[in-house]
Amino acid sequence: MCGRFTLKTPIESICRQINLFDIWPQEPQGLQSIPRYNIFPSEEILVLRKGLGSPVDTARAPAVELLTMQWGFSAEKMKRIVNTRAETILDQERTPRGEPAKRCVIVADGYYEWKQEGTHKIPYYFFRPQQKIFGMAGLWRTAKDQAENITESCTIITVPANEKAGQIHERMPALLDITQTLRWLEVDLRRESLQDLLIPAPNAWLQSHPVHHRINRVGIDDPQCVKAVYCDEQRSLF
Question: What DSSP element (H or E) covers 4?
Fold first, then answer.
């Protein structure tokens, strides 16, 4: 699964790395003024989706909207569905509640996973070389509360882990580069293309190191979260 991730990269750098032909209608304001080192479920996150109402132009990259959504679909008993297995999507391209799926891509530059060691879980940080951003394939939907307020929320799709990530956890996010991101957002994406995209990332894609268990605490969000720590440092670093 993927229960936490990071987005430390400034919005200007994100847009340069994405290098899209269109970001429609405009960049969200304010979200990336503060780097995020430990994003929790239910928080607002940065998402790419096909521009609603924008024309389809097969001669160039699709018009894409960059916006914020709440991470996690609301579920019963105050729980949130923050991850959806790729096997569910490939079996039937629907969200967990049976609504028609709407594809999106969650923007990130790292994510956390926990390794079970005896009675303890050791957190690890996964990231790309040179701290490049990447996409995580996702689904989004809208929901209304009792006051008729509309909320847009999303979930991250997970796949079986590759050999390297599998040493820490059996699953990982479905990671996408820029080309794969644009394909994932295509309106008429065929099932065969979904299968090609919802696969483990190559081993060389990611680097990782253990981090301090302080990231388990709600509200801990600073550069120390992603710092590599080993052995006794797990106890001494706050």
Answer: strand 4-7
Cβ neighbours around 106 below 10 Å, total? 27
Q: 97 to each of 90, 92, 100, 114, 149, how far by Cα in Å?
A: 15, 12, 9, 28, 19
Domains of the chain are 4-207 (3.90.1680.10)
For 236, the 3-state DSSP assignment is helix
> Cα–Cα distance between 50 and 64 in angstroms, integer?
5
- SS3 (DSSP) at 119: coil
Q: What is the pLDDT of residues 81-91, one digit of tens each?
A: 899 999 988 77
Distance CA 69, CA 208 (A): 27
Tell me the DSSP string of 188-227.
T--HHHHHHHSSPPPGGG-EEEE--GGGGSTT--SGGGGS
Taking the model in full, what pTM does it have?
A: 0.86
User: pLDDT (tens digit, 9 = 90+) per residue, 98-134?
Assistant: 455 689 999 999 999 999 988 889 999 999 988 789 9
Q: Phi and psi dihedrals of 21, rounded to 5?
A: -70, -35
Terminal-residue alpha carbon distance, the chain: 26
d(CA 190, CA 199): 15
For tokens 């951003």, the residue is 133
What whole-number distance in Å separates Cα of residue 238 and Cα of residue 235? 8
Helix, strand or coil, per DSSP, at residue 231: coil
